[in-house]
Amino acid sequence: MRVGPSQDEIRRQNLGALLRYVHVHGATTRAELTTALGLNRSTIGALTADLAAAGLVTEGAPKETGRAGRPSLVVRPESDRVFAYAYSIEVDRLRAARVGLGGAVLDRRELDRPRGLTAAEAAPLLAGAVKEMRQAMPEDAVCVGAGVAVCGMVRRDDGLVRLGPTTGWVDEPIGTALGTELGVDVPVTVGNVADVAAFAEHARGAAAGCDNVIYLYGDVGVGAGIIAAGRRLTGHGGYSGEVGHMVVVRDGARCECGNRGCWETEIGEHGLLRAAGRSDARGREAMLAVFDAADRGDAQAQIAVRQAGDWLGFGVANLVNIFNPEMVIFGGTMRDLYLAAAAQVRSRLNSNGLPACLEHVRLRTPKLGEDAPLVGAAELAFDRLLADPLDVN
Amino acid sequence: MSATPLLELRGIDKSFGPVQVLRDVAFAAYPGEVTALVGDNGAGKSTLVKCISGIYPTDAGQFVFDGRPVNIHSPRDAAALGIEVVYQDLALCDNLDIVQNMFLGREKRSGIVLDEPTMEQMAADTLAGLSVRTVKSLRQLVSSLSGGQRQTVAIAKAVLWNSKLVILDEPTAALGVAQTAQVLELVRRLADNGLAVVLISHNMNDVFAVSDRIAALYLGQMVAQVKTTDITHAQVVELITAGRSGGLGLTGEPATNGNGAAPAGSTTGGVS
C-alpha cells in the first residue's frame, strides 16, 4: 500500500508548477517564485537548474532595481526556442501558427477555406503553411507538440471530429491526418474551438484568475467552453458545451444538426440574417453588416438585432442559473452581438436569472480577440509539457 | 469588488442664478467598476461632472474621496486627487503626434531638453496596458487617426497620470459599430485594471454592455443608483423620462427632497 507520492512524483509536480508559472506570468524572479509556489529557495534553485538544463528556461540578471541587496535572478521561459504548432480550422478559413512557450505567437499563416473541405483535404494545406514557417524558424527551435482548434464535436480520446454541423464534417480524423501529413514526431491534440478559446482566456486572458467561466463562441453555430472549479468541463466523451443546440423553441426553425428550434437558430448567423430579411447572405461580414445597418437606423435590422439579443440573454440566463459562473465571455460573433444588443441581453438576463446566480456574474468580451483559438490550441500542446517537463524532450 | 466608494458626493446643490440645476444630488463611484451616469438632455449630467472636475463650484454638499472629505475648487485640485475627464470633443491637438498629445502641458524633461525616450516608453506602456493594438506608430499625427483611435488616445492620456477616477463623456457618440465596440472594451478594461470609471452615455446599449451600476438623473435629482444586474432596459428608460419606475426613483412629492436618493451601495451591499 502506498502512503504518499514518491520523491520523483513530487519533483515532477514541482517542475511542472514552476514551468507553468513562468509560462503564464512571463519572466519572474526567483524570489517571487519562492513566494508564489511556497517552495524554499534552494528547491527553486535546483528546479530552475533542471529546467534550464532541459532548455526550457533561462536565468539572467534582472534590470537595475535601485534597491539595496543582491538582486534575485530572473527566470524566463525560452519563448523563442521552445514552441508548439497551433492550428485553427474555422468555417471560412484555416490558420496555422507557431506559439512560443509563454504564449506569444511567433509566426502565423492564414488560408481561405472553401466551405465543405474535408479533413483529408485540409491537412495538406496546413502542412504547407507549416513548411513555410519551418524555413523561417531558428535552427535550434524545439517543437513540443501541436494543438488543433476545430468547430465541431471532438472525441477526447483520439481527437476524432465526430460532428461539425457547420463544417459538414462527420467522423473526420483530423488529428491523425495532420500527424501523418506533418511527419513530425509530436503528439497532435484536438479540441473544440470554444473549449480551446475558453482555455486560453482562462490561462492568460479576460478570465485569468476566475475559476467558473462560460465562454460562448459564435460563428455559424454557437458553442460554449465551460470551466468549472478551475477545470475544463469536457463531459464523458469530450462533447460537452454544445449549448447552441439547447432547444428553445418547440417546432422552431430547422437547425443544421437536424433538430428544430435550437438556440443557435435564433442567435447564430442564419437566425440573425433571416430576421433581418437577408437570408441569401452568409458569413461573418454579413452579420456585421446587419449590426452596422441597425446602428444607422435600418428598422428591420434593428428589430433583428434586438430579437437576437433578447434570445442571447434568454440562453445566457439559463446557463447562468445552471452553472453559476463568475464570468461569461462572448467570443466570435457573439462579441459583436453582445456589444450591439447589450441592453436586451442584460435585461433578459436580469429578469430570467435567479438573483443569487446573478449576483457576481460579469459579462465580458475576450481579451485575446481573434488569437484565442490559436493560443488555446497551443495551450493544449503545452499542457503535456507542463504535466511532465523533463519527459517530453 | 469594493464596497467602499472611491468618490462619494452627498447633498450637492448647484444653481445658475435662479435656475437650480442640481438638487441634493448623491453619487458614488467605486474602484474597479464602471458607473454609468444617465439622464435626459438637461438633467444635469454635464453640470455634475463639471462640479466633480472642479470647473464649477458647488453651492452646497460634501465630497468624500478615498474615505477623506475633500474640497475641489479647481481642475487642478481634481487632477491632484487623480480625477481625469475625457470630454466629448477630446481636446486633442491635430498637429501633434500621439506622444506629444498624451504629455501636452506635462512634458517630462531631462535637464533642459524634453525626455522623448521616457515619454515614448510611458505612452507605449500605457497603451500596451490597455491592450490597444489598433495604433501603428506613436509618432503618428493625431490628424491621421480615426475617431475610435482618437478616443483611445484621449482615454490613454487620462490613464497615464496614475489617475484613480476617469470620467468619460459620451465616448462612443459619433463612432461606427466596430469602433464603438473597441472603445467599450477599452472602457471595461480601465475598470478591470482597478480604476473607478464614470461613463456618461445616452446609448442604453453602451450602458448595459459595460456598466456595473447605473445612476439616473432626472431634472437635477438623482432618482436612483442601482446595480446593473438589478434593472432592465425599460426601467432605466422610465427613470430617465419619468423619474420613477416601480419601486425605484422618486417617491412622493418631488419638492420635498430631504435626503436625495441614497447611493445604492449603502443598501445593496456587495458588488459584482
UniProtKB/TrEMBL annotation, chain A:
It holds the Pfam family ROK. GO terms for molecular function: kinase activity. The keyword Transferase applies. It comes from the Bacteria. The keyword Transferase applies. Belongs to the ROK (NagC/XylR) family. This is Sugar kinase.
Automatic annotation (TrEMBL), chain B:
Gene3D superfamilies: P-loop containing nucleotide triphosphate hydrolases. It comes from the Bacteria. Residues 251-266 have a biased composition (Low complexity). It holds the Pfam family ABC_tran. The keyword Cytoplasm does not apply. The lineage of its organism: Bacteria, Bacillati, Actinomycetota, Actinomycetes, Micromonosporales. PANTHER family: CARBOHYDRATE TRANSPORT ATP-BINDING PROTEIN MG119-RELATED, SUGAR ABC TRANSPORTER ATP-BINDING PROTEIN. This is Sugar ABC transporter ATP-binding protein. Residues 251-272 are annotated as: Disordered.
